[in-house]
Each structure stands twice: as C-alpha cells, then as structure tokens.
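Structure, all two chains, one model.
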Amino acid sequence: MQNNRVNHEMGAGANFALCLGALSIMGLLIVLPLLVVLKEAFAGGVKLWLASVSDPDALSAIKLTLGVAAVAVPLNTVFGVASAWALSKFRFKGRSLLLSLVDLPFAVSPVIAGLIYILLFGRQGWIGTWLTEHHIRIVFAVPGILLATLFVTFPFVARELIPLMTEQGSDEEQAALSLGANGWQTFVKMTLPNIKWGLLYGVILCNARAMGEFGAVSVVSGHIRGETNTLPLHVEVLYNEYSFTASFACASILAGLAIITLILKTIVELKSGREAA
Amino acid sequence: MSTRQLRAKSVLPGFGLSLGFTVFYLSLIVLVPLAALVFRSSELGIAGFLETIRHPRVLASFKVTFLSAFIAALANVMFGVTVAWFLVRGRFPLKRAVDALVDLPFALPTAVSGIALTTLFAPNSTLGLALAKVGIKVAFTSAGITVAMIFIGLPFVIRSVQPALADLSKELEEGALSLGASKFQTLWRVVLPLLTPSILSGFTLAFSRALGEYGSVVFIAGNMPMKTEIASLLIVTKLEQFDYAGATAIAVALLLLSLLSIWTVNLLQARATRYLGN
C-alpha cells in the first residue's frame, strides 16, 4: 500500500550533505581566518606575545581604543534610547524620513565617514583656518577619531530599540501615567525593563564596532604612534613594517574581544528568549 | 504650540525633548558633515566633477570595486542560503555554536580579517601553494578582493534568509509534495520564490557593504593602480596627496552609485513581495 503521509523531514543522506556543505563554508571562510590569527600570534611563543602586547605603543593604542569606546558607546546609547522613544511612541510628520536618516551611516563607506570630518575640520576645511588660529586640533587628533567612531556606530542601539518599542506600543506607559507616575518613573519602571535585552544587544554590537573600526578612524587619525593610533591602526602599522608576529599578537586581542562579543550576544539572545535574530 | 501641531494625540510625555535631542544629535554627527561633502563637491562644478571621475584610474577602480562586490554578493547568496538552510533545518549537535560564529565577520575588526585572510591565501602559505598548483592566485589579485568581500558579506545573507526560512509554513511544502510535486520542484517552485524577497535584501546588504569595504580588502588586494585598486583606497590615496577635491568627487560618485544600487534592489524586492501577495 502506498503511504499517504508525506515525509518532509530530510533523509539522513540529505542532512549529511547539507551539514557538509554548510560546515565547509563556515570552516573555510570563518573559522580558518580566526585560527590563522591565533597561530600567527603565538608563532614566537607566549613570551614574545606578552612582549608585543605590553610594548608602550601597543599599550597606548589599547588605552586609546578603550577610551574612545568609553565615550562613544554611552553617547550613542543615549541617542538610541531618545530617538527610539520619539520614533516609536509618537506619530508625527517627517517620522519616516527621520527613520531612514537614523540608518544612513550604515550606507556610507567608512572611508567616506572619515573624509567628511576632514572636509569640515581639516586645514583646507570650512573652519580649518579658524581652528588653526585657536590651536584646536580635531582631525589627526583624538577628537577626530571620536567623531568618526560616533558616526560609524551611530545607528546600532537605535535600530535595535525602534522596532522593539514600536511593537510593544505604549499601553503600559499609559497605565503607569494614569496611576500617577511621572514621566521619568514611567520610563525607568515600565519602559526600561521591557527593553533591557534589546538595549544590551545594541550596546554590545555598538561597542564591538567602536573598538574595531578601521577605515573611518584610519582616515582621520594621522597615524601618530603612541598618540593617535588605535589598536586596529597599530595592527596595520606593525603589519606594514613586516612585524607580523607583533601585529598578529595585537590582532589576537581584538579577535578575543570579537569572541567575547559573540558569546555575550548569544547569551542575550537566549535570555531574551528570541531565536537567532 | 509647534510640537502640539506636529504630534498625533498621545498622553506620553517627553516628545519634545526626545525628538529635539534626536534631531540635534543627528544633525551634529551625521547631517552637517554629510552636507559638507555635498557642498564641497558642488564647488567642483559638473565639469570638474566629471573630469575627476572620467580619469582612467578612477574608472578602473570603480570597475574592480563594483565587479568584485557583485560577484561576492552572488557567491554570498549561494553560501548564505546553504548555511541558513543548515541552521534552520539541519540536524547537527553544535548548531548553536555555528549560529554564533556566523556573526564573526561583524564582530572581528576589519583590519584583523584583512591580515588574516592575506596570510591564509598568501602565495607561500599552505593554502596559497595548493591553489597555485591548480593555477589559482588569490592574494594580491582581484580574486583576493572578492574573497575578502565574501567574508564580510556572508552574515548579511544568512541573517536575512534564516528568519524567512524559519517562518516558512511547512503546510505549503507538504501541500506541494502531497499533490505530487517532486522534492526538487517543491524547492524550486514553492520554497525559493517565497524566499526571494529575503534573498534579495541579503544580496543588497552584502553588495552595499562590499562596495564601501576598506579594512578587510586593502591588505589582500595588492593595490595596483588600474588593476586591484578599490574606490575606497583611491579616496585615501587622494587624501594623502592633499587632493581633497579629487577625494570628494570619488566619494560622492561612490555614495550615489551605492545608494542607486540599494534603491534598485529595493524596488525589485517590493515587486517580488507584491507578487507573493503580502
């Protein structure tokens, strides 16, 4: 007799072929480059790795990278929450335009993100002469690096929160207000607990990009060793000097940060109960 | 008065404050600097702009950038759909870990991916030597540019297709199969058309990211003018020569071309979605 039930489950053979295909792609494209970083970083042993990452220039690059992220991430987080509040809880003229403008930095090449600040603040720039007269340095200095980082990490928190808060609506906030809570209490006690995982998710992604940005920062940095080199730029400088082991040693710190980011991200995804976003 | 006119009725507070801060911060960080780019390029005039863009070296850089990005995005559709299929339907014990690793190209700083891929495919590496035996050179050729762009674009396709595939109702497939369609027909005529909008959006995201990509590409590209010099690198080179006008012209052209490609695919996507009747 014919079996009427249709079996849509994959057979063992098809499953094996699928696993083989997908794992080869992931292995060759994703895992292998990661392994190369670790192999090259420790090619000269642990001692050489330690010496490379504790070199004064490397340490100052690490400090700059952490410092820039420590300013850029909170600023963009505040922006993300404020813009999500305005764009998800209210309907107003120009809302959809504003929504697409928030995402705009993702469509701009990192190199162009750096270029625009040079055009504004560089010596030939609009207010370049005024800045020089007043001895204010923005590009080829730390403020330029910060601005470029702010630009490339601009949408991360906002684009996590806006869809989330739009979906949640504002019933709970309205209930809290009608029971006598003020605006701030409503936000802290009602909104914040509802969005905490989405917020954390955005912050994690924003931080990873802030610490790892290369193109935009490279254009505005001026590459002054020990002063305006972030860790990714220091990796490039060492690599171009053929100091491969030292370069990969510094790169391995960044790779470690990337792995930590992925682990945190997975934990947040599991906690927030959503399947892979 | 003005905020009251702007907003639809809502009892929630903080509209003026949050909107005001959003517009102020957006202008400060994004809009004013981008306006500087537009105004600087308008100073060039149409003639000056075209003269810069028509230079053979600039045209060659656009050609290699767009061609490599296009091939990479196509490859990403193939690879990305396979991996997404595996993540949704495959049976494998460590799927969760593989899923987490998908985002590595997002999380790994581009300079690190750049030097890692270059070392992996270098002519004297194990993989480089093996590929050389079959006559393929990757590092310091346009193939290298494509490989780096595939790396950076892979998560976009996977993350677009994965939720669409998970949402796909099994009833449709079962229906097709029970009505006598073969597995291949079901895949080709039922599943794939339903996935088309998500594949297109993944393709666009991967393509536009590849167009502007810098860090992961410059190390493996070889950066030979007229051959393996990408548009982003040419902008940097012009800046280093203090040719701000030239850098601006190339940047505006690159930005316009990438926005144009995004809009085109969005249009196609809207059509595909309408065709499916959602």
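Residues 1-47 of chain B form one domain.
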